[in-house]
Amino acid sequence: MPSAPTVLEPAPDPTPERPDATARPRGRVLAAVGLLWAALMAAHGWIPNGFGNLGSLFQTLLPWTGIAVPVLLGLAAVRRSRLAAVTALVPAVVWSVLFGGTLTDKSAGGGDLTVVSHNVDEGNPDPERTARALAAVDADVLALEELPADSVEVYERALAGAYPHHAVLGGVGLWSRHPLKDVAAVPIMPWTRAIRATADTPRGPVAVYAAHLASVRVHPAAGFTTGRRDAAARVLAAALRAEPLPRIVLMGDFNGTSRDAALGPLFSGLRSVQGEAGDGFGFTWPAAFPVVRIDDIHVKGITPRSSRTLPATGSDHLPVAASLAL
Q1: How far apart are CA 110 and CA 122, in angstroms?
Q2: d(Cα 164, Cα 131) in Å, to the nearest integer?
Q3: Helix extents (H) in the chain
Q4: How many helices (H) and strands (E) would you count in the chain?
């Protein structure tokens, strides 16, 4: 019988298979998002306050931008992307540069003047308990904001024993162990939301300001509404620049943080007591779960020694306290 025909197999290609040159590494979109987020964090002061005042909103929430790091790392793990995981560390580095020093305790002993500022909340259900809690702090000067007219007498009665000197104008008041002179309203808004007085301390006069800037809101259509607040801040900044005394204490509810570039003119030339002598972020609002520090104390010609938030009092804000060296 004739033999079966021989079938020739093609010889194997000796050239090894190369990866597809057009294949893209996994996670490129995540990597781009991480780099963009890091750039926004690093350049937060340059984000414009055009539509919706997005710059102010981003700066207000700046400490929370670090949450993006674990989110990006988790998504990188899901995508099994080494590129995305490495890139997620860039915003981590930027956040550490911005806030690494904030997490250290910078407080020191000493101080000649203890001050407390508190937005007592016009809807506070128990103003007498709040007043007693503030008196127990044993501060030299109290600045109270959002004082409702029908509760002023409650605060006056509860604080009279500890503070022989006080002044209330509109919704803002000062209580002091030291004599208060030259008390006057600072016209930052059509109704009184700021007060200025000279505290005659044993170490000399100190200009004390208590202020409550206009509230801000977030609206779906209008964005972060800060127009009235920013206008009030500019008027208050002008008053501070014109202040003749070399030593100034500015306390209050600013409805914005010291990182908000729109409030830069107000805090320019002043020292943040929390930034220089605090421990952590010192968030103050809302009292039930604080996420931002909008209640603050700034000084000029005075050395901050310590700064802290105080326990909740029944207000929707936490009080803030500082020890100062005159």
Answers
A1: 34
A2: 15
A3: 28-42, 54-60, 68-79, 82-87, 89-99, 127-135, 152-159, 227-241, 264-267, 273-277
A4: 10, 14
Two tokens, residue 43: 């350049």
**300 backbone dihedrals φ, ψ, rounded to 5°:** -140, 135
The residue count of the chain comes to 326
Report yes or no: 306 and 111 within 8 Å, Cβ to Cβ: yes
The two structure tokens encoding residue 204: 């000399």
Dihedral Cα 149, 152, 153, 158, nearest 10 deg: 160
Q: How far apart are CA 187 and CA 23, in angstroms?
A: 65
Tokens of 144: 């109270």
Name which of 224, 261, 280 is nearest 43 in CA terms. 261
Dihedral sign, CA of 51, 55, 60, 66? Answer: positive
Digit-coded pLDDT (tens) for 17-76: 555 545 567 789 999 999 999 999 999 999 988 778 889 999 999 999 999 999 999 999
pLDDT of res. 21: 45
Q: Are 116 and 324 in contact (CB under 8 A)?
A: no
Q: Which pLDDT score, from 0 to 100, does residue 12 have?
A: 59
Mean pLDDT for each consecutive 10-residue tract of the chain (326 residues)?
54 55 73 96 91 89 96 95 95 96 93 97 97 96 97 97 97 98 97 97 98 88 85 98 98 96 96 97 97 98 98 97 98
Dihedral angle, C-alpha 292, 171, 192, 135, nearest 10 ° = -80
